[in-house]
Design brief:
Layout: H1 3-13, E1 31-34, E2 37-40, H2 43-50, H3 54-65, E3 69-72, E4 75-79, H4 84-98, E5 109-115, E6 118-123, E7 129-132
Antiparallel strand pairs: 1-2, 2-4, 3-4, 5-6, 6-7
Organism: Fermentimicrarchaeum limneticum
GO molecular function: translation initiation factor activity
Subunit structure: Heterotrimer composed of an alpha, a beta and a gamma chain.
């Protein structure tokens, strides 16, 4: 048989690729409104998946939503009513700016302080460094 024909037959018998190869999954905010407060139930889980300190994410959300907030147990209490859609959108922007590497697009990063208060996003996969404003 012809080599190209055998090769085509072998490729057609392979299963389709199931995933994109990325092991990072964007966490989803689970929240509910109680009176005039919004409570994010899975805040600790989100910070663990993102490998960031809770204080960093709280500072970002407080600045973006312009509301005071406090951490209570494994959750986060926001002073105001917010829908899951808006909170997930803010979290997505945080991940794009402060978690995902600008070069290789992987989430294997950490934030380190360099000098004079300027912090850098350092990728543990490719070694790229990019300045971030925290």
């Amino acid at each position: 048989m012809d080599y190209d024909l055998l090769l085509d037959r072998a490729y057609s018998s392979l299963p389709d690729k199931a995933s994109s190869g990325s092991r990072f999954e964007m966490p989803v905010v689970e929240s509910f409104v109680q009176g005039n407060k919004t409570i994010i139930k899975n805040f600790d889980e989100i910070t663990q998946k993102l490998r960031r300190r809770p204080e960093e994410l709280m500072k970002y959300l407080s600045r973006e939503l312009a509301v005071p907030m406090s951490k209570e147990g494994a959750g986060l209490v926001l002073q105001g009513k917010f829908h899951d859609r808006m909170l997930n959108e803010k979290l997505k922007r945080y991940v794009e700016s402060y978690v995902i590497c600008k070069e290789c697009k992987k989430a294997d990063t950490k934030i380190v302080g360099v000098e004079r208060g300027v912090k850098s996003l350092v990728c543990e996969a490719c070694g790229a460094r990019s300045p971030v404003r925290v």
